[in-house]
TrEMBL record:
Gene3D superfamilies: 3.30.1330.30. This is 50S ribosomal protein L7ae-like protein. InterPro entries: Ribosomal_eL30-like_sf, Ribosomal_eL8/eL30/eS12/Gad45. Residues 4-82 form the Ribosomal protein eL8/eL30/eS12/Gadd45 domain.
Amino acid sequence: MSYEKVKQAANISIGIKQTTRMVELGKSSEVFVAKDADPRITIKMVTLCKKVGVPVTYVDSLKLLGKACGIDVGAAVAAIVNE
């Protein structure tokens, strides 16, 4: 599954604010978006990623993405960060 990449990544950012910042700074190689997240939240992220050329991967749910990130709550978006 696609969220295996998130589990294996050395550095990740979780949440809209942190992920947006990493994408804007050019530090993100891939962004993951939960399919069941509120589109009003995720559409800006997807648009930003398209604009700067960062691939977007959709995952099945907030819960699964949160679990892959190692947190106990759902995550709408997460990114693999290149330091």
